[in-house]
Amino acid sequence: MKAINLFLLAAMIGVELILGIVVAPVIFYPQDLIGEGVLSRFQSGLMMSKIFTQMSFVLVVVSVLHFLFELYSFFKNTHKFQLRFSTLMLSILILLLSLVFTFYFIPTILSLQSLGENMVASSEFQSIHSASEVVIKILAMLQVFLYFLSFKYYNNSK
User: Fold this and answer.
1) Distance CA 12, CA 102 (A)
2) Torsion over CA: 31, 33, 34, 38 (sign)
3) pTM of the model
4) Hey, how many other C-beta atoms are within 10 angstroms of the C-beta on 109?
5) Average pLDDT per consecutive 10 residues, the chain (158 residues; last block may be shorter)
6) Under DSSP, is residue 62 helix (H, G, I), strand (E, B) or coil?
7) Minimal CB count within 10 Å: which of 27, 28, 116, 139?
């Protein structure tokens, strides 16, 4: 169970990093690869929204599973209270940010995109989009921190 938990957490971190480092630049700057006139910025945004919508539900499932595992471990292993409490709190933060990203930012961005290309160019859209980027970056950092903290705990509990 520990290995599956760590695998899911690491896989989610990997997905987030690949989407941010590899996929987003290719989708938003296709002219660098193919030339001009491939996709507009608005069309690229629609594609990324679809990708992040699908990723966000996987994110919530992994976050819920990890939270449940940490909750179970917290009550099962009370001898390591401080470390278990830290990992439990991190998993709660990750779950909350996952829910906010999935059920606030994604629907808000999609509804603003549905109003057209002019709305996407607005300062309102830009501020919501920037906030969602900050949330996903914080989420990824917390997951990395939780991964290494959990890994430390698992190695010390043998």
Assistant:
1) 14
2) negative
3) 0.89
4) 20
5) 90 96 90 78 93 97 95 79 83 98 98 95 96 97 92 60
6) helix
7) 116
